[in-house]
Write a structure and sequence with these properties.
The chain has two domains: 114 residues, Rossmann fold, CATH 3.40.50.2300; 86 residues, Winged helix-like DNA-binding domain superfamily/Winged helix DNA-binding domain (Arc Repressor Mutant, subunit A), CATH 1.10.10.10. The chain is built from eight helices and twelve strands. Strands 2-1-3-4-5 form a five-stranded parallel β-sheet, sandwiched between helices. Strands 6-7-8-9 form a four-stranded antiparallel β-sheet, with no helix packed on it. A three-stranded antiparallel β-sheet has the order 10-12-11. The two termini are 22 Å apart.
Length: 212
């Protein structure tokens, strides 16, 4: 599920630029161009982050954040403004903002700050040089696409879904076409050699894939 952001900016060009950049970075963004519009959106929806300009029509960014904090809304907030004197910067933090970005700025600078506060969820499992893209069911090793056979994939996915926990060897034997203790040992060793994964053998019990 993507992280949601309420963006308040009355400069149409800047607003559209920031909106597109954040959306392309997999955030879900609602855009408001007035303080009243932002207030209505904040009351109707739940957000993970607010990004407020200060000098906007109706309710300014300071007044809006103050009202939200009085309503017990503690959503992390970034102010962005051409008001760069110490008095206004101090006021922004006193009202409960977590960051204050001085205009003009490069859009990418805002994105860096947003990512620091809202890290994006990932479907990637990375262990050393091996990567498993769960969403696309794809494997890579040392940057190259890796093709695993059906038994190797089944073994990996059984271990992966239980990573950090021991998987009974009887369960893993079901992943093999011709199951036997020897065949399982050979298959696990081959998987380790192919992927570089840290798979440990608990003798007589089963195998465990260490968490990345």
């Amino acid at each position: 599920m993507s992280k949601s952001i309420l963006l308040l900016e009355d400069d149409r060009l800047l607003a559209e630029t920031l909106y597109e950049m954040l959306e392309e970075s997999a955030y879900s963004v609602d855009l408001a161009t007035t303080g009243d519009e932002a207030a209505e959106l904040s009351y109707a929806n739940s957000y993970d982050l607010y990004i407020f300009d200060i000098n906007v029509p109706d309710i300014d960014g300071f007044e809006l954040l103050e009202a939200l904090r009085e309503a017990k809304d503690h959503t992390p907030t970034i102010f962005m403004s051409a008001l760069v004197d110490i008095k206004n910067i101090s006021k922004g933090f006193e009202l409960g903002a977590q960051d204050y970005l001085k205009k003009p700025f490069f859009p990418e600078e805002l994105l860096i700050r947003v990512k620091a506060k809202l890290p994006l969820e990932t479907d990637l499992f990375i262990s050393g040089d091996f990567t498993f893209d769960e969403k696309n069911d794809a494997f890579t090793y040392k940057g190259e696409r890796l093709s695993l056979g059906s038994s190797q994939q089944a073994l990996f996915k059984s271990l992966y879904s239980n990573r950090g926990r021991v998987v009974d060897k009887e369960i893993l034997l079901e992943c093999l076409e011709n199951p036997s203790s020897t065949a399982l040992r050979v298959a696990i060793n081959k998987l380790k050699q192919t992927t570089g994964l840290a798979i440990e053998n608990l003798r007589g019990v089963g195998y465990v894939l260490e968490k990345s």
